[in-house]
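From the pipeline queue, job 12 of 40. The input is one protein chain; the requested action is below.

Action: predict structure.
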Amino acid sequence: MRPSASTYRRISIGALIALSVIIVTGAAVRLTNSGLGCDDWPNCNSEKLIDVSSTHAAIEQVNRLFTGVVVAAVAAAVLGSHRRRPFRRDLVVWSWLLVVGVVANALLGAITVWVDLHPYAVQGHLLLSMALIASGAVLVRRSGQLDGVPRRASVSPVSRLAVGLIGLGTTVAVVTGTVVTGAGPHAGDENAVRLDVAIPTAARIHGASVMVTLVVAVALLMRLRRESADLGVLRPGLGRWMFVAILQAGLGYLQYFTGVPEILVGAHVAGATAVYIVTTQLWLDTSEPEGVRVDERSPVAV
């Protein structure tokens, strides 16, 4: 089978969805203290490959088994990129980057279990997952572009710099958020070690990074009003970013002032994933021709 451009785009979207879902299921493992429900890897324990004899083991096992869905989705993206016609080297490269990231994250997941959920390992696991999300978002965008259309800078250098600052701020916010998580109460296991950092201090630093990033975004929006060409290119993506980022910031403050309940923490992790997707999309808006997409039926410029 040789997938069409529109079919391959749906395959890449499926891979991004799978990569996003497993981040949330991984958070569910941590939030239910099931991180060591399976204390070995790849076996659940020294006696069984699969063990659902306890609630914690079952939750951890479901998360591990969902990795199979991720592997299948990423494998489809890789195979589809090789068999898609016309052949696109950029799609092959980005799809293989997903393979590298999934393998690396699986190994890091094993290390996380072996070190009894040390917060540094948990942090690295999430940050690598966000890098995978960014790669998946790039693959989706690239697969939605017309074949043979040259890429070029579509906004001014100043606007590109501002978008870069937003991306940097988003990354800093995610990193500081993992520090809050590493010091917080949801370790994944009752006996897991925590970071020796005062939670209020970590939360203030995290909150400050979020606020600074939002201020940069507002400043960019105000400047774009004087740059009609840049505004036309960036306004849709910047609007999506502002909407998701403000909701995520509000959710973060809500969970902090309500004692970080598990359901809100899980929603915050899902929100961080969404923020990274829209951040990647916003950056891609700075360097592609306007209106180039793949229609549901055939590649067309819209």
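Job complete. DSSP finds eight helices and two strands in the chain.
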